[in-house]
UniProtKB/TrEMBL annotation:
This is Attacin. Pfam families: Attacin_C, Attacin_N. Residues 117-236 form the Attacin C-terminal domain. Residues 53-113 form the Attacin N-terminal domain. It comes from Arctia plantaginis (Wood tiger moth).
Amino acid sequence: MYAVNLLIATILLVGVNARFVQQEEDYRYPRHLQFQHPRLLASARVRRQAQTSLSLNGDGSTGLGAKIPIVGNDKNVLSAIGSVGLDNKMNTASKGFGLALDNVNGHGLTVMKETIPGFGSKLTGAGHATLFQNENHNIGANAFVSKNMPNIPQVPNFNTVGGGVDYTFKNKIGASLGMAHTPFLERKDYSAMGNLNLFRNPTTSVDFSAGLKKFETPFMNSGWKPNYGLTFSRSFP
């Protein structure tokens, strides 16, 4: 009976909510964390600057993000965060809001609630930490857990957990590896990305990322596919 229910749920999630599945194929970070590298703007966070971003993805989708400081000092800042995701037809694919706590050393925590049209909602808790840092090298790690709450008959709530590591050289070029697991769907997602900063000044950053991603389930293996995007970030005093 469990196998039958799992198959029904998988068909519903893939068939009825294809847009959601497409949006979620890259589990390296939840989407609201993808709009900026957590360490590239670390000093801006400590100065309590508001931040906005625009991400253009290779599949034609777009992401908009914002972070507005609420309270903080020279060590930690608590901010309100929000995001809107658009599909390749400029329809709303997701929207969310939450809180982020950032530390001057590059550590941080976020909690976000997202609404996904045609699917339901998702609550995500995530964290990132700097493992090593000097004037040339930066190594970090991240992890998250998401509680997916579909508005689909006979499909219960289910969790996705994941994490990854990333490396940056002189805040200019870097790479990251990520993996996530959704036990209910018996699905695993993998990503391997390279990152390049194209432009940066005290208030603006333009970053390009490219790499490969894939997912595996008992019923399907996507194989490695190209994944790329361009992100514009802007901070305000």
